């Protein structure tokens, strides 16, 4: 069964168990998906209201993007689990000969990069959710504006927590160019997300 088919209770029970998955990457994707769902909810509560007619077309754009990100983050939830399974399978490859050792070493590097790209993508998608929250904060339905604050905090949390899965893999990757790229992206995401979250929450608080 796909982890996406689990009930909330089943997901929490499995996450709390000794099973290795769902782990931090999947939980981060789940949080990011929740952030996207809050953006979508506020957008849906804004569209069709006479009071917000002037911003409806923009809110519809935000809703469409939010729905896409929601689906993408749901996919990331499952993908993170697949990456762990792939990594464990590669660790079991034979290493009896020099040729086998070389093949295994190459494969390990490949799955490490793939297992890093997945949580990095979760972080990047959560960053996009955060930007949608920022865009919706000044124009969304005031009656539900607190939920945009929730979306902003959750999106930033998802981004930061997903990066832990990046950080744990990165030292094992031998490609210095890849390492430098990821570290630069990490710094960019953290710096920009912190400012966007502060700005968004400030707008939300002013509209409460």
SSE order, as H and E? HHHHHH
As a whole number of angstroms, the C-alpha radius of gyration is: 20 Å
Please name the fourth-level CATH homologous superfamily: Formiminotetrahydrofolate cyclodeaminase monomer, up-and-down helical bundle
Number of helices: 6
Largest sheet: none
Summed over residues and divided by their number, the pLDDT gives a mean of 95
- Classified by CATH, the class is Mainly Alpha
Portion of residues within helices: over 70%
| Helix vs. strand class | mainly alpha
Q: Architecture in CATH? A: Up-down Bundle
Strand share of the residues?
A: under 5%
Offer a concise description of the structure.
This protein has 208 residues and is mainly α.
């Amino acid at each position: 069964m796909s982890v996406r088919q689990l009930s909330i209770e089943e997901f929490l029970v499995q996450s709390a168990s000794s099973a290795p998955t769902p782990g931090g990457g999947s939980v981060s994707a789940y949080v990011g998906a929740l952030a996207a769902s809050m953006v979508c909810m506020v957008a849906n509560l804004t569209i069709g209201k006479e009071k917000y007619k002037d911003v409806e077309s923009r809110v519809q754009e935000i809703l469409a993007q939010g729905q896409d990100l929601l689906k993408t983050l749901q996919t990331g939830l499952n993908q993170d689990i697949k990456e762990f399974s792939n990594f464990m399978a590669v660790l079991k490859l034979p290493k009896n000969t020099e040729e086998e050792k070389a093949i295994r070493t190459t494969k390990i590097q490949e799955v490490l990069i793939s297992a890093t790209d997945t949580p990095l993508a979760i972080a990047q998608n959560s960053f996009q959710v955060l930007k949608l929250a920022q865009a919706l904060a000044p124009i969304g339905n005031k009656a539900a504006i607190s939920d945009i604050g929730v979306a902003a905090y959750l999106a930033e949390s998802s981004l930061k927590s997903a990066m832990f899965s990046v950080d744990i893999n990165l030292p094992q990757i031998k490609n210095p160019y890849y390492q430098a790229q990821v570290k630069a992206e990490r710094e960019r995401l953290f710096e920009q997300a912190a400012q966007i979250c502060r700005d968004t929450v400030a707008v939300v608080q002013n509209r409460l």
